[in-house]
Amino acid sequence: MIDLTTRLTNELTLSSPVMNASGVAGFSTEVQGYFDQRDLGAFVTKSLAHFATEGNPAPRVSGAGISMINSVGLTGPGVRGWLEFHAPKLRMNNVPTIVSIWGRTVQDYAKVLAELNGVGDFVKAVEINVSCPNIEDSMNMFGHSPQAVAEILVATQTCKLPRFVKLSPNTHLLQEVVATCVEGGASGVVLINTVLGMALDKRFLLPTLGARSGGLSGPAIRQMSIRAIYDSYASFPHFPVIGVGGISTANDAIEALAAGARAIQVGTASFVDPRAALKILRELPLAMARLGFERISDLTGAAHRGGVAATKSALEFRDPT
Fold it and tell me: N or C terminus: fewer CB in 10 A for the chain?
């Protein structure tokens, strides 16, 4: 029997390590017609600010080979709109939920959490998206600055829910930012967000996106994600990592978990097939069994402990009780 439960923190254990990535499944029950969201370890909302946003000009999404480039612009109803129209649906269906939040200033993050206070037990954690422009610092991304991330963690330290910080890979300071999250009291990190990119229409030789550049996601960035996860685990093996970036199959999920992730999120693959996360969840036990893994905890960080051979050796001597 394969045990898919995964402990992200002492207070938060998920029934499985598979979630959707923020931004691909809407704000509440938009994907409910494809599968029961309660089957996943948790549902992750699209990012919410304390204000409503319209997003970037169209076109917002463009193909990039087997991957995708987008510049949606964090469009959304704001946290008050979410609380009025979306949260009741998730509460009624008892969907374990992680609320993704963002802001343009440090205090914007604190304001979102103040609005979320008392939302209900169905919200299990918050995902703090720092891969957005900081208008107080000449539009530089929060996630590119260890100091800015530290300030956000201070501003949100009264939050009673686990805080996972979603980080940008578009900086050479990524591991310094991870260290800041460890030192600043975050519950863990989400690695990685999209990679900055751009595409031109081959007929007109003009940008394919209305905002010109955007974020590259999908299979093209998986190896970047694996490296970020691996490096984070190598430096801080007890600090929880949620892996995301190009995961399309159960084997991709195993790779991220073996690199050091305790859970994974499925993003761009969901645009190809809205049931992608559920399919990965269903295929994961067999894929684990083929390699000799019985528990997610055995698989997490296996690449740092000698891989499959070392794990099988350890399992042979495990006390059956």
Answer: C
Answer yes or no: 132 catalytic. yes
Pairing of strands 263-266, 123-129: unpaired
Q: Does 150 or 132 have the greater pLDDT score?
A: 150
pLDDT for residue 317 is more than 60: no
Residue 61: which H helix or E strand, with range? strand 61-64
Cα(277)–Cα(272) distance, integer angstroms:
11
Nearest of 239, 107, 224, 247 to residue 163 by alpha carbon: 239
Q: Give me the catalytic one of 25, 132, 155, 167.
A: 132
Residue 109 CA to residue 157 CA, distance in Å, equals 11
Query: Does 321 reside within a domain?
Result: no
Residue with token string 């519950």 = 187
Q: Encode 236-264: b = buried (16+ Cβ within 10 Å), e = exposed.
A: beebbbbbbbbbbbbebbbbbbbbbbbbb
pLDDT digits (tens, 9 = 90+) for 242-276: 999 999 999 999 999 999 999 999 999 999 999 99
**Residue 24 sits in a domain of what CATH number?**
3.20.20.70
Instruction: Calculate helix-pair angle for 106-116, 78-85, nearest 10 degrees.
Output: 20
Residue 1 placed within a domain? no
User: How many other CB atoms are found less than 10 A from the CB of residue 53?
Assistant: 17
Residue 34 counted as domain residue: yes
Domain region containing 149: 6-316
Tally Cβ neighbours within 10 Å of residue 290: 12
Residue 136 has, within 13 A of its CA and on its CB side, a CA count of 12
**Distance of alpha carbon 33 from alpha carbon 13, whole angstroms:** 26
**Phi, psi values for residue 70, rounded to 5°:** -140, 155
Q: What is the pTM of this model?
A: 0.95
**Is the pLDDT at 288 greater than 90, yes or no?**
yes
DSSP 242: E
| Domain count along the chain | 1
